[in-house]
Design goal:
Order of helices and strands: EEEEEEE
Radius of gyration: 16 Å
Helix content: under 10%
Number of helices: 0
Strand order of the largest sheet: 5-1-7
Strand content: 25-35%
Number of strands: 7
Largest sheet: 3 strands, antiparallel
Distance between the termini: 38 Å
Length: 120
């Protein structure tokens, strides 16, 4: 029952692995600079995954047992291609504080438990 003050994650979605490594700016737009979340990924073909339902405004949860979690659901269709799950951190002002590491204030995204269920 604690509240760390962390804002909700704006979105969680599924996409195809990109066909080439690119850098993205903070809004997800390809750019010469910016952060490189794709740099650690294998290269895909950019096809084969279609998001059907995304999760929005996902509030952080602090529980002691997985059974206490309230799930957020995303749905996607794949032709067997590799799936990239993207979770977006809140970037609104004021920036989320980092009391342990000054100078690292800002957006945080956490995705530490998930289940994949195949549907026909």
């Amino acid at each position: 029952n604690c509240d760390c003050g962390m804002p909700p994650m704006p979105a969680i979605t599924a996409r195809s692995l990109p066909e080439k490594l690119v850098s993205l700016d903070a809004d997800g737009v390809p750019t010469e600079g910016g952060w490189t979340w794709k740099a650690m990924l294998p290269v895909g073909d950019g096809k084969g995954v279609e998001p059907i339902q995304n999760a929005y405004n996902v509030a952080p949860q602090h529980v002691y047992k997985d059974s206490e979690l309230v799930p957020s659901v995303i749905k996607f269709k794949t032709d067997g291609s590799d799936v990239l799950v993207i979770y977006e951190a809140d970037r609104s002002e004021p920036l989320y504080p980092d009391c342990a590491r000054k100078g690292r204030e800002g957006a945080r995204g956490i995705l530490n438990a998930f289940e994949i269920i195949a549907l026909d």
